[in-house]
Amino acid sequence: MNATRKTIMNANLFFRLFDTSDNPNRLAIEMLDGTHISYGDLIARAGQDDVKQRLIDNTANAVARGAFGSPTFFVGDEIFFGKDRLRDVEEMILASR
Fold first, then answer.
1. How far is 17 from 1, CA to CA, in rounded Å?
2. Dihedral of CA 88/89/94/97: which sign?
3. Which of these, 38, 73, 89, 95, has the minimum number of CB atoms within 10 Å of its CB?
4. Domain extent at residue 58
5. What is the total count of domains within the chain?
6. Nearest CA to 62 among 45, 47, 74, 76?
């Protein structure tokens, strides 16, 4: 999966999580439908030390770049904060293709 598709999927997941009261596990299962990733494999992988360390490193990097809450997205050097900016994130990604 390329970086643009991952970012759009993440934005979509964040939008749905922050915009609804949907169960996050059910949303993850629904979003994985049609991919080659099983929910069980995703949960197992999330518990592994290298993944946990990557989360710690990514969080530190995001804070260093100016992130201060969630959801925060970067498109290049541009920072977007808040669910109301997710449409802007998608438009900027699509415009940069």
1. 22
2. positive
3. 95
4. 3-95
5. 1
6. 74
Residue positions counted in the chain:
97
What is the sign, positive or negative, of the torsion defined by CA atoms of 49, 36, 12, 92? positive
Residue 35, both tokens: 């991919």
AA letter at 10: N
Q: Which tokens hold the place of 25?
A: 């596990």
The string of DSSP letters for the chain reads --HHHHHHHHHHHHHHHHHS---HHHHHHHHHTTSS--HHHHHHHHTSHHHHHHHHHHHHHHHHTT--SSSEEEETTEEEESGGGHHHHHHHHHHT-
| Tens of each residue's pLDDT in the chain, 97 residues | 566 667 667 767 667 766 666 777 888 788 788 788 888 998 899 999 999 999 999 999 999 999 988 888 888 899 998 877 878 888 888 888 7
